[in-house]
């Protein structure tokens, strides 16, 4: 450490992260890199997005968790770090950038840099990571590669990047076909130019294998066979299997431990190894108390690595024990102790999630980066057999110099020209302010707004409805501002059951004129359960269990056949967007129900259209 002469480099190793906005092709590019590196057998069936192994990732079509993979190129080990592109999972990106020495910035040749592009590059420049610019999807009919490259340079200048960053290498790619080239005119049918750029421009880690062991943990996981796993990077020295080490946690006191299993990455799999040297990425088993940010050292006197710090959360929800009349019928884990243990485990594995005890023993305040991140957590709990209730999301405010401040978001909206007025009209009552509008091209226009985070709660589904599915909306947290005042609550009230029973077709048919239903015929309901959305701004208590009275007098004709309008079945995200301050979501492994906090209709306050 005290050596004045420059450290030599490990030229046999490169660590780099692939960063981009959502849907710009990161995971597709990783697929092509792994395939061309020859890690799969010729007869092996390889799924698309091979690194997205989580069920929710494959269902939603997005990357949620950062992943590691490693390939060999001409004797050089390339550690690839795939990152999520959605702003809600920015904590994963911040965590992974600590493992990298450089980044590949992937930008769509038509869409150009978007909010998450700005976020990831800001973090990369703060960590002094060198970029390689890759303009992807150059085969699109609306590709504008040269303009997009200028926009990337404008972004770098806006982020006050060093001048040498503007000399970063630029490549053009079609990740889906596994093609990269150094110019648009070049003939290429492989990723060879990209591999060469990585070896040439991503800095090699310093050669520090002769120094004492020092490593940091950036992620934790669990394996059914070997127990708790920790992933991280060796800063100096050599990590060896079955050797005693010292683990320094948040309290700063080193505790002795032992590495029982040591793994490196080989393709997409973990491979057991005897030792891993400085600069490389490791996975260890045997340290039961390890958490993200801990330092693994060879001795008690080795200085710990500074702990990982990420941006604070902006949104919180209250998780609570299910106390509805149907509680305990569908789930395995119901108690506050079980829910608390699972939430604490989630907080330990994800640095962007914070869990605090609520105002009562059966409530927990969970804070994260956005609705999507929290809904992914809830869906995971639901699939594991948990039953719980959720409150309406609230923004996390803070007080600075006696002034209440709230998080603001930069919102980018891409819509057909005819919806400009519709979008502006929807965002104005939510305190949105337009900051930029680009001239329409191809009949579409791109608008930028600055809006409080709470103004976006419940907005996305309404936006897609109003733009008839043609609009694209992306947003990212863009600083804090003084509290801007109240925002009007949901304009429509709810249809609420006034008794327990089973929903009948006869009652549902007669209630159709009152609003849209969320439940199907024969669904079991209870008093205080929300059945649908009222057309008016007030709540309406209804008898959904009413049956047609039967008599022994026959009519000359026959009864009309009842044809019910199909109900609007709500997903978890739609439920989170829909609920109001006086409502909760009941989440079980089999059902999603919306209910009033106060179930009895004779003591429940009347809803008004007042502001928050």
The portion of residues assigned to helices is 10-25%
N-to-C span: 56 Å
**Total of DSSP H or I helical runs spanning 4+ residues:** 12
- In total, the number of domains comes to 5
Count of distinct strands: 35
Mean pLDDT: 86
Low-confidence stretches: none
CATH superfamily of the largest domain: P-loop containing nucleotide triphosphate hydrolases
Q: What is the molecular shape?
A: globular
Q: Tell me the Rg in angstroms.
A: 27 Å
Give me the CATH architecture of the largest domain, please: 3-Layer(aba) Sandwich
Largest sheet descriptor: 11 strands, mixed
**Name of the CATH class of the largest domain:** Alpha Beta
CATH fold description of the largest domain: Rossmann fold
Give the amount of beta strand, in percent. Answer: 25-35%
Task: Indicate the structural class.
Answer: alpha+beta
